[in-house]
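Lab notebook: predicted structure, single chain.

Context: the supervisor wants predicted structures on file for every construct in the current expression panel, including those that have not yet been purified. This is the next one on the list. No modifications to the sequence; it matches the entry in the shared construct table.
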Amino acid sequence: MDDQNKNLLLATGLSFAVMLAWFAIAPPQTAPPPEQAQSETAPLATTAPGTADVNPNLGSGNAQAVADAGRITISTPRLEGSLSLLAGRIDDLRLKDYTETIEEGSEIVTLLSPEGSAHAYYGINGWAAASGVSPADVPGPTTLWSSNSTRLTPTSPVTLTWNNGKGLAFERVVSVDENFMFSVEQTVRNDGTAPVALAPYGQIARHGEPPNLKGFFILHEGMVRMSDGELNETKYDNMPEFDINPKERAPADVVQVAEGGWIGFTDHYWMTTIVPQGAFKSVAKYDVNNDVYLTEAVQPTQTIEAGGSTTVTSQFFAGAKEWEVIRSYQKDKGVDRFVDSIDWGWFYFLTKPIFWLLHTMNGFIGNMGWSIIGLTLVIKALLLPLAYKSYVSMARMKELQPEMEKLKERAGDDRQKMQQGMMELYKKNKVNPAAGCLPILPQIPIFFSLYKVIFVTLELRHASWFGPFQDLSAPDPTSIINLFGLLPWGAPDPGSIVALILIGILPLLLGISMWMQQKLNPAPTDPTQAMIFAWMPWVFMFMLGGFASGLVVYWIANNTITFIQQYSIMRSQGVKPDVFGNITSGFKRSKKKS
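Prediction complete. Output recorded below exactly as produced.
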């Protein structure tokens, strides 16, 4: 077997190895459920400033009481569900504007579920006893409240009341706005004869890891909080690894917030967050005994003199991570850096402006697919000066091609002489051989940032383009096996190994666009280089085939615009790329080799 055939087989093997490795590590995968941590930790409790102990939120034992307790209906333009009178839990919530899939008749997204359900997830408010009152005499997870209202709407708040029978009367007013923010105003009145000290708190409990975790390195899922301007994120599977906190009696991470912030849980597209007013103790912890993930905001201890009262307010966000809505809470409601609850990543200085531009363009165009193409045009326009220098340099190198061929003939097998001669030739003609890489370098972080925007932001979820492309955050749903929908049988499930091989129309167009870019220049004379270049478009076609279709649309548009730019600039420099000749010469070489 000659060297050329050996190289061809090696390239084939490496290409398939790259594709299989990429398929194994790159697509979003569901994280396996964590092993139940074993510990002798005491029942869960936490401590507010001073000596106030938050009532334990046990991971089991309240399910029947929750089922038996009365409920108040929650009905807003964007939310539906109910609030339990047991602890005043907001534990039943669905998002009217979002469905689980794009299929007709798909159920709307369920965000919160009561204790006793398969994936319990809810918010609770209460008071922690500090002095002058016992923990059993303050409202907590097992308190049964009373209310004369049966319906919570943006125009009709509900008032919950509870009296401990020992001189303390508690009142809680719960309201909700037109989007996803609840306000909880807690009041305690001391009708006794001695002062008492209490600390108000808000708590979010999540029983077990949430279903359908993406478990993908590019996306954060888990605890998220802002503490005096500092963002902190911890994935669900890392929360059990917190150090045991003696006061919390659990694996916990505690931060004292001096001025303001928030804490909660974030998933791919949805989030729950407690937003207290002013200073608070921010607690993230894991209940080892009951497999419950908890976030808490414990506000400063309040001392209520006999005959006096006090009122504190906090907010509870439960909904979709819509950029405009979250930004409005940051700008109009003073929720510190709330936009950072969206996972912008390390390249936030790129992802934020890229998303803003894409979002703005979509507002004018009204179609996310065309907006992505418009975004590509803007990015290419911004990089045009860099591209111009690169393509001018490439055109000059093309002019030097005859002299380089003569140099190769003179140098023969002497590689050192060949290299020295090439460097002198470049220097004499003021050509930078590395200039061709200049447009590629900024494309790498831009490509990654756009991928992050498309994968992470809610605005791309279920965003349609045309025809079969009804979800640009998902892989191409078409397949070559049914001629991209022309034949009367279905395509493989997106994300499967079969779908990766039997690619759709977008990955195919991506490969063709990369191949056409190559044909602006003759193939390298070195056989090994020529073979690598020949395989590269088709390897990338399969590698990127399982990516979000919106990202593949960007890359096709990028390649097409690059082809037009390079062709035009080279023509302006007196060089006419022989695209057709380069294509036919490739087939001639293949025919000759065979």
